[in-house]
Write a structure and sequence with these properties.
By secondary structure, the protein is α+β, with helices and mostly antiparallel strands. It has 14 helices and seven strands.
Length: 279
C-alpha cells in the first residue's frame, strides 16, 4: 500500500469525466480500475490524502504518471482569463479532474469505438473485448483502508497481438458496429509493428496528429482524444457534440485556445464535465 498527499484530485469526478472507460466507483471514498494489465483500488482516507493498493515501485512507474501528479493543476486554474466566466465556473465545478495518461493501444481502440456512442455503450464494448481476449486478473485480498472489490475476477485490455488474433466475427459481436474494421486494422497495425506507441510518442504534435489521422477510421476528434489521453499532449482540444454546443452557446462558435497553448485540453475537460453535470 502507498499513501500519498495529492492536491486537486477528486476520484468521483475523474471516474465520471469520460476520459477512461474502466474506472468504477465503489462508494464515495473508493474507486477501482483496470489499466496496464493491473487492478488498482484507490481510497480517499482524509482531505487530499489517498491510499493506493500497489507497491511503491508500481505507484512511481505507473500510477503517478497515469494521474499526471507532476503537474500543478491549481496553477492552471489560476491562469484562466478572469473575463471568461464560463470557464472559471467550469474549472471551479470540475476541481479535482486530472488528465489521465492511459495506455496508447487501449486508448486508440477505445476512442475508435467512441465515435457516435454514449459513454455507457463504449464501456460495454470495451469490457466485452477485454473479456473475449484479455488476460484474466484475480481480485486481490485487500484490508483497510480498502474495501472488497466489485468482482472476483477482471480482464486486462488485450495486447495488440491478442486482439489481432480475435476472429472478426467475434469482434463484431461486441457491439462495435461499423467500427469493427477500424478496430481490426488498428490491431493489425500495432501487432505488426507498423504502428508503435514508443515511436509515435517521439513525434511532434503535428506529426503525431498526421500519423493518427492516417489510420483507417480515425478522424480529427478521435486523433485529438488519443493525443490528449494517451500521449499527454495537453494542448490538444478535442471537439465533440458537447464542446461544439458550448462553443456555439458561450463563445460565438469557437473557443480560442491560444491563451492556453499547453493546457487547452485540461480546459476542455473542465468544460465537458461542467456542461454534462451542472444542474
Amino acid at each position: 500500500m502507498v499513501t500519498v498527499k495529492i492536491p486537486f484530485l477528486d476520484l468521483l469526478k475523474v471516474a465520471d469525466s469520460g476520459q477512461a472507460f474502466r474506472i468504477k466507483v465503489i462508494d464515495d471514498s473508493h474507486v477501482e480500475l483496470v489499466a496496464f494489465g493491473k487492478y488498482l483500488q484507490i481510497a480517499k482516507t482524509a482531505k487530499d490524502t489517498f491510499a493506493f493498493s500497489c507497491s511503491d515501485k508500481e505507484f512511481r512507474n505507473i500510477w503517478k504518471p497515469y494521474l499526471d501528479l507532476g503537474r500543478d493543476y491549481k496553477a492552471i486554474v489560476r491562469s484562466i482569463d478572469k473575463n471568461d466566466q464560463y470557464l472559471l465556473d467550469a474549472a471551479r465545478f470540475g476541481e479535482g479532474i486530472r488528465i489521465l495518461k492511459q495506455d496508447v493501444f487501449e486508448t486508440v481502440i477505445s476512442y475508435i469505438i467512441s465515435q457516435r456512442r454514449s459513454i455507457p455503450s463504449i464501456t460495454t464494448s470495451v469490457e466485452r473485448i477485454s473479456k473475449l481476449c484479455g488476460k484474466k486478473i484475480m481480485a486481490p485480498k485487500l484490508s483497510e483502508p480498502f474495501v472488497k472489490p466489485l468482482s472476483n475476477e477482471y480482464c486486462a485490455f488485450p495486447t495488440p497481438e491478442e486482439l489481432n488474433a480475435l476472429p472478426f466475427s467475434e469482434l463484431e459481436n461486441t457491439g462495435v458496429g461499423y467500427r469493427a474494421p477500424y478496430i481490426a486494422r488498428a490491431a493489425e497495425g500495432f501487432a505488426s509493428g507498423l504502428l508503435d506507441a514508443e515511436s509515435l510518442g517521439k513525434l511532434s504534435d503535428d506529426d503525431l496528429y498526421k500519423a493518427l489521422t492516417a489510420m483507417y477510421g480515425v478522424g480529427a476528434k478521435v486523433a485529438n482524444c488519443i493525443m490528449l489521453f494517451a500521449f499527454a499532449r495537453t494542448g490538444r482540444f478535442p471537439v465533440d457534440v458537447w464542446i461544439q454546443r458550448i462553443e456555439d452557446k458561450y463563445y460565438g462558435g469557437h473557443f480560442d485556445c491560444t491563451p492556453y497553448p499547453d493546457t487547452a485540453g485540461i480546459m476542455q475537460q473542465f468544460m465537458f464535465y461542467y456542461e454534462r453535470r451542472k444542474v
